[in-house]
């Protein structure tokens, strides 16, 4: 079983829901305006003195909601309606997605984000994780290698085909009987790199477990009334089931975890998501993050070390009409408190990236030899990391 | 009679251009033949630099083939060529790009390896920087090579991927492998391999009565979890959005192997959902020579216009600008039958769309009941 929060069983949650609602009713019945306190959480801030308490899991202050402010009243209205739906899900032991919940009261829930915030608030109030509320999302994770486990009675025997991708289960709480002969876990940012490793039969020579999230999708594009389709790749930000699964493997197997991301600000951001958690899920970071994860590559310094050809070094964008430019994003990441006091070697590499003004993708390492990644780069980096 | 139906195109199939799925040695042979032909003409008494004849992937070369005795229509490309010529001043680079990619693919095939499109981009960027500057150029050139050699990208050594998943009452067996029971694959279903050769050789068995194509991953996951395929004996298949070739190919194989099973699509009520249905149904020109094959007789189960009465007004959300573009391209494609065209018109006129999840307004059980009722009433078009 995953590390559980105490008292997050269904019955406990149903009791807490009743208690919460009763306290509001009690206040209203005596003419008192109920006050709802919602803890605030964050994974990092821009404090560089080392005095912030981001690394602790304590809440950083509370939001105070009262009925005396109209925006709060609406927020509480939404919260209570979502709570009612959650109560039904728990009572009937059914699952629903955030989108499903939105459509149950679309006129009140003017937007999806309103529902998302209510779900977060409820998790904080009831001190549980999202899946405890029976609110689920789709699974995007893929795993291969020297691993075997059960999920809800179904066998996942990855060892049977160590170069075949298996989907990471969505209901990670149902994962049991994990058996592994792996020596380490390798997390790769993109599905294309996972494909490369599978194609090279990486797991035949390397006793490990490889995890990624699916990043490919088909993008339609309309050009002069002509519908054309392209197979594209998106960013590899991990979904919640994959993060929970990784955490579970680390807890049960006590293996080293290495992370292979593109050498660009988004790759680095993905690494920090695995390690520290995302801001949106900060309230649950304790159960989602994997502090043991190490940055295997690609480092900016690798481009020289491994003789990456010049054309593969793409410039960091300085301006971007839609998103944050690469340079601004890198600067913002450098301000995060966890890079000020610890992880100085991460900081140095990131500063080097900014200084050089270039980025590169993992695929660039295959330019000279398609098997370079599997036969050279990864094994030599692992050797260094394991101190062999 | 069955044979007559199958041959209802009256041998006009000979006009159709296919991208064959071939092995590495045949792919190499085709490349060698192309090179030898080029050199022969260059070396001939009246030497010339031949143009490259590529199957034209223009709108003007596409036709709709409406089955006479079958219900399957598909888009096809005929033997109309466009050329890449070294002699045209602005097009010389495109000509050279084709040869560069052919060379790179040959090297990869000789090594008995595979490459992803992104890796191919970096290799070309480094070996021929004056000809390749972006991924899109590489993708287009790959499509040119497919049109030149008339074989699939996978045959050229480019790695295949699939987004698809299948679940339900289907047994799949790869040669010399264990049989996979798709109903026991959990809520994510069985992942569809990107390897078309493998898919071609798969043995399939079913006791289902319907095949349901699901647009969205979230809906597929819900239906799989609720084991809807047991209540309505069915196979569920999804591409999690716009379909990739492998998923379409598997559906096509299922339609051939189980011709009595109606194929029903469950998509959002919006132009994108209809475009996804149409891609499964008719094929698409979009991805070049490979994509228009594998058309299947897919029927539109839902969401359709007359389902909108089931959901409240507030559940309809505005169309995005992209939806309007897609609607326009669907209309101009001339492939839509009249009732689809009418539905599309209603969507555009109303300026709104509806997602399948909107049905949850009526409770969690409602989606299963909705599907069952529509199927029983044969309410699909």
TrEMBL record, chain B:
Keywords associated with the record: DNA-binding, Isomerase, Magnesium, Metal-binding, Nucleus, Topoisomerase
Domain Spo11/DNA topoisomerase VI subunit A N-terminal: 94-158
Keyword Amino-acid biosynthesis tagged: no
Entry keyword Magnesium: yes
Catalytic residues of the enzyme: 122 (o-(5'-phospho-dna)-tyrosine intermediate)
Main subcellular location: nucleus
Localization of this protein: Nucleus
Residue ranges of every copy of the Topoisomerase 6 subunit A/Spo11 TOPRIM domain listed in the record: 210-375
Cofactor dependence: Mg(2+)
Listed EC numbers: 5.6.2.2
Catalytic reactions of this protein: ATP-dependent breakage, passage and rejoining of double-stranded DNA
Pfam family, one: TP6A_N
Family: Belongs to the TOP6A family.
PANTHER family tied to this protein: MEIOTIC RECOMBINATION PROTEIN SPO11 (PTHR10848)
Protein name in UniProt: DNA topoisomerase (ATP-hydrolyzing)
Species this protein is from: Vitis vinifera (Grape)
């Amino acid at each position: 079983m995953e590390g559980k929060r105490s008292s997050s069983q269904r019955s406990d949650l149903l009791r807490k829901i009743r208690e919460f609602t009763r306290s509001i009713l009690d206040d209203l019945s005596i003419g008192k305006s109920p006050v709802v306190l919602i803890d605030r959480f964050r994974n990092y801030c821009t404090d560089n003195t080392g005095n912030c308490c981001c690394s602790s899991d304590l809440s950083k202050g509370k939001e105070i909601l009262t009925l005396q402010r109209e925006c709060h009243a609406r927020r509480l209205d939404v919260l209570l309606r979502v709570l009612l739906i959650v109560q039904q899900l728990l009572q009937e032991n059914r699952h629903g997605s955030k989108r499903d919940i939105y459509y149950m009261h679309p006129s009140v829930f003017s937007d999806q984000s309103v529902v998302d915030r209510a779900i977060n608030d409820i998790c904080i109030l009831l001190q549980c994780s999202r899946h405890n509320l029976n609110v689920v999302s789709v699974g995007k994770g893929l795993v291969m290698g020297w691993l075997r486990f059960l999920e809800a009675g179904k066998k996942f025997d990855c060892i049977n085909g160590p170069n075949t991708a298996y989907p990471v289960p969505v209901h990670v709480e149902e994962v049991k009987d994990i058996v592994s002969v792996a020596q380490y876990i390798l997390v790769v940012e993109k599905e294309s790199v996972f494909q490369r490793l599978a194609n090279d039969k990486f797991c035949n020579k390397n006793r490990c477990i490889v995890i990624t999230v699916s990043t490919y999708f088909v993008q339609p594009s309309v050009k002069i009334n002509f519908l054309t389709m392209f197979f594209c790749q998106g960013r590899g930000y991990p979904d919640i089931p994959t993060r929970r699964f990784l955490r579970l493997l680390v807890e049960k197997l006590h293996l080293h975890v290495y992370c292979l991301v593109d050498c660009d600000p988004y790759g680095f951001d993905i690494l920090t998501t695995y390690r520290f958690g995302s801001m949106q899920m900060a309230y649950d970071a304790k159960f989602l993050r994997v502090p043991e994860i190490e940055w295997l590559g690609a480092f900016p310094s690798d481009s020289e070390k491994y003789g990456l050809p010049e054309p593969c070094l793409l410039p960091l964008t300085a301006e971007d009409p839609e998103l944050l430019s690469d340079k601004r994003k890198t600067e913002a990441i450098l301000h995060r408190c966890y890079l000020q006091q610890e992880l100085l070697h991460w900081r140095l590499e990131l500063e080097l990236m900014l200084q050089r003004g270039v980025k590169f993708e993992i695929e660039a390492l295959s330019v000279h030899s398609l098997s370079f990644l599997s036969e050279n780069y990864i094994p030599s980096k692992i050797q260094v990391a394991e101190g062999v | 009679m069955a044979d007559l139906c199958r041959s209802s195109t009256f041998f006009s199939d000979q006009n159709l251009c296919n991208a064959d799925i071939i092995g590495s040695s045949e792919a190499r042979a085709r490349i060698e033949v192309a090179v030898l032909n080029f050199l022969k003409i260059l070396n001939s008494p009246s030497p010339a630099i031949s143009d490259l004849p590529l199957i034209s992937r223009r709108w003007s070369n596409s036709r709709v083939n409406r089955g006479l005795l079958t219900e399957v229509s598909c888009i096809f490309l005929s033997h109309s060529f466009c050329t890449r010529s070294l002699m045209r001043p602005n097009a010389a680079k495109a000509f050279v790009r084709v040869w560069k990619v052919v060379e790179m693919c040959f090297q990869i095939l000789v090594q008995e390896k595979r490459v992803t499109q992104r890796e191919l981009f970096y290799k070309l960027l480094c070996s021929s920087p004056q000809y390749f500057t972006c991924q899109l150029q590489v993708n287009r050139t790959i499509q040119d090579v497919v049109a030149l050699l008339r074989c699939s990208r996978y045959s050229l050594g480019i790695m295949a991927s699939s987004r698809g998943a299948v679940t339900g009452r289907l047994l799949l067996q790869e040669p010399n492998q264990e049989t996979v029971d798709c109903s026991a694959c959990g809520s994510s279903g069985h992942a569809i391999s990107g390897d078309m050769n493998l898919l071609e050789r798969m043995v399939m068995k079913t006791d289902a009565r319907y095949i349901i194509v699901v647009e969205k991953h979230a809906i597929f996951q819900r239906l799989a979890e609720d084991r809807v395929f047991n209540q309505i004996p069915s196979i569920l298949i999804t591409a999690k959005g716009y379909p990739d070739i492998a998923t379409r190919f598997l559906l096509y194989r299922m339609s051939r192997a189980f011709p009595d099973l109606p194929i029903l699509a469950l998509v959002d009520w919006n132009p994108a959902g209809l475009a996804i249905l149409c891609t499964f149904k008719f094929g698409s020109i979009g991805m070049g020579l490979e994509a228009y094959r594998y058309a299947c007789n897919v029927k539109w189960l839902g969401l359709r216009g007359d389902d909108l009465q089931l959901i409240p007004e507030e559940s309809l959300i505005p169309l995005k600008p992209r939806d309007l573009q897609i609607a326009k391209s669907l209309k101009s494609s001339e492939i839509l039958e009249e009732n689809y065209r009418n539905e599309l018109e209603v969507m555009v006129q109303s300026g709104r769309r509806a997602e399948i999840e909107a049905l949850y307004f009526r409770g969690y059980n409602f989606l299963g009941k909705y599907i069952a009722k529509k199927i029983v009433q044969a309410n699909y078009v």
